[in-house]
Amino acid sequence: MARIRGYIATSLDGYIADRNGGLDWLFKYDDMDLGEHDYRLFATSIRTVIMGRDTYDFIAAQPTPWAYEGKRVLVVTSRPISSPPGELETRHDVEALIAELRALDDGDVWMLGGGRLQAAFLERGALDDIEIYVMPEIIGGGVPLFPATGLRLSPKLIETKALDKGCVYLRYNFS
Questions:
Q1: CATH code, domain carrying 108
Q2: What share of the chain is helix, strand, coil (3-state, %, to 5)?
């Protein structure tokens, strides 16, 4: 059974994107040394990437090549996607998607980006763990790490570590 995992950066004040959906505050840390927590190492354990439509639209608008070549990519949306930059499939039923993901046995699943989709999975007990990288930036508003849904959880802290450039790594388990 595949594990469904989060791997995400947030500002110190709890936002994953600024008020305009931008990540300039985060991109300035692209050269930091994450050591054993580096994205490229994380990505080797991932076979399937799932994301919401807002995250997909942001990634598709970037001038960089499609970063998920060779991975199964699922976008949760009810709107059609025309001319995607890489291979992907769409889903709209979160319950059916969770059942589909749980049946996979060829690698872990990465819940990429967006707090709304993460919240939908958390509400259904379907996010196993999350790695959060807290960046030393206060951006004053934007897209929250976890949207206000009324959901209350007490995840178990598995690991914490101070990393390069003032970043703090946190790993929580939800099971």
A1: 3.40.430.10
A2: 25, 30, 45
| C-alpha to C-alpha distance for 35 and 53, rounded to whole angstroms | 31
Q: E-assigned strands of 25-155?
A: 46-52, 72-76, 89-91, 108-112, 129-135, 143-144
What is the DSSP-derived secondary structure letter of residue 28? T
Report the alpha-carbon distance of residue 39 to residue 121 in Å, rounded: 22
Name the amino acid, one letter, at 117.
L
Tell me if 128 sits within 8 A of 98, measured CB to CB.
Answer: no
Q: Does pTM top 0.90 for this prediction?
A: yes
Q: Which structural domain, as residue segments, surrounds residue 159?
A: 4-79+88-173
Q: In whole angstroms, how far apart are CA 158 and each of 12, 67, 175?
A: 20, 29, 12
Query: What is the number of helices (H) and of strands (E) in the chain?
Result: 5, 10
> Which SS3 state, helix, strand or coil, does residue 11 take?
strand
Identify the three-state secondary structure at position 25: helix
pLDDT value of position 127: 96
Under the banding of pLDDT at 50, 70 and 90, the label for residue 104 is very high
The pLDDT confidence band at residue 28, using thresholds 50, 70 and 90, is very high
- Tell me what pLDDT residue 89 has: 96
Number of domains making up the chain: 1
